[in-house]
Amino acid sequence: MLDAVIDEQVGRRIRIGDHWLFDFASCNYLGFDLDQEIIDVVPEYLAKWGTHPSWSRLLGSPVLYEQIEEKTTELLGSEDTLLLPTITHIHMSVIPVLAGSGTIFLDGRAHKTIYDGAMVARGHGATVRRFRHNDHEHLRELLRASTTTPRVVALDGVNSMTGNAPDVHEFARLAREYDALLYLDDAHGFGVVGERGPDELCPYGKRGNGIVRHQGAAYDNVVLVAGFSKSYSSLLSFLALPTRLKNVLKVAAPPYLYSGPSPIASLATTLAGLEVNDTRGDRYRFDIYRQTKRVLDRLHELDIYTPNQSGYPLIEIPLANHEDIDPVGRYLFDRGIYVTMAAYPLVPKEEVGFRVQVTAANEDDQIERLCDVLGEINERFELQHEQHHELLLQARAARG
Ligand SMILES: Cc1ncc(COP(=O)(O)O)c(C=O)c1O
Fold first, then answer.
1. From 112, 135, 211, 242, which residue has the greatest number of CB atoms within 10 Å?
2. Which atom of ligand 1 is nearest the CA belonging to 90?
3. What radius of gyration, in Å, describes the C-alpha atoms of the chain?
């Protein structure tokens, strides 16, 4: 299930050769890739704007950018937003600008693209310090010992492997205390989690406006990065940031100056997606919540360990023996379950396994099949159980 060629797609079913599978590897969380109302708007935008603007954003941006930035700023409740094609472009170009010749404090499990952005910054003279994943105390020690400015603390919002989120209040508080900027990549939280309220349909909250709003935190000293390429199924990403910083990035971040922009179809589906999010988004978030809960309950019933403690729709299932990855992958494939495989050396041996993502477009019978197959895998192969996981952690601690 790596590097596969998908021959056909019908809903969340995909065909590879003559084999049909249920797709649990999609990050199109809200199912907007399949939404007819969104699909239908594309031709009118193409008729008006052509397929692709080709100007870099500095040379000229179709007014659609202004419209999306305005709507996104309103949705997030941030001071401003800046759109660029992908999150990878943002990390590579913005982290070096923010860090200058100061220090980046990087979470031990930060997404590879944040890490790569930090490495580019290092090439430009910044120092990089890594703190243990989600460990405030370790971060505090490093911040206290640091003498250079500016300081940037960089980590994921909803983590792409564990499915859990950091305590944004605590990290933002620390950042403020040590005059640092908190730089959060919420690729997986935006669209899924949002502000809380008494009329929310589920614990994911409302409006999908991301992890900062979900936890009721403020944007002071915080730059939130996220994208439309997951929940909104469109090639576009953004930073939520103060206007002053936006103006700096417009001349200092190379993708704004030089990169080809998002295709018109993606700008169109983002705008339509923002409308649909307003009208139907919370219902979809409820569906994701309900289906994810069903899978997590099943894992619990089978005593299968997953790091997911949040209930968000990324569920990693590590194996007890990393050598089993090939037969487990083959078994899932044969039973028609398509997932993301996490093989060594992409992840450490004790984390080798597979990851399931649940989207609003996965239907009940697909979830039931997944639950059945998890039971079969549990009988045929060794997965990690709570107790087993504890032993692994102890062994890792003993190894130092
Ligand atoms: C946390 C995180 N950040 C960044 C990216 C890359 O996003 P983009 O495709 O917009 O560059 C991903 C994609 O998997 C991701 O999971």
1. 211
2. 11
3. 21
Q: Are 295 and 356 in contact (CB under 8 A)?
A: yes
The pLDDT tens digits of the residues spanning 238-252 come to 999 999 999 999 999
pLDDT of residue 400: 58
Residue 95: name the closest of 173, 166, 153 by CA: 153
Instruction: Give me the pLDDT at residue 256, please.
Output: 97
Q: How far apart are CA 211 and CA 204, in angstroms?
A: 10
How remote is the CA of residue 126 from the centroid of ligand 1, in Å?
A: 23
Q: Is the peptide bond before 307 cis (omega within 30 degrees of 0)?
A: no
Mutating to test ligand 1, I would choose from 111, 186, 211, 355 the residue with most ligand atoms within 8 A of its C-beta, which is 111
Taking only the tens place, the pLDDT of each residue in 70-82 is: 999 999 999 999 9
Ligand 1 interacting residues, C-beta cut-off 6 A: 86-88, 111, 113, 156, 160, 185, 187-188, 227, 229, 237
Q: How far is it, in rounded angstroms, from Cα 99 to Cα 101?
A: 6
Distance of alpha carbon 282 from alpha carbon 277, whole angstroms: 7
Distance CA 397, CA 384 (A): 17
From 87, 94, 266, give the residue whose CB has the most ligand 1 atoms within 8 Å, as the site to mutate. Answer: 87
Which residue type does 267 have?
Answer: L
What are the tokens at 374?
């998890």
Going from the Cα of 145 to the center of ligand 1, the distance in angstroms, rounded, reads 31
pTM of the model: 0.96
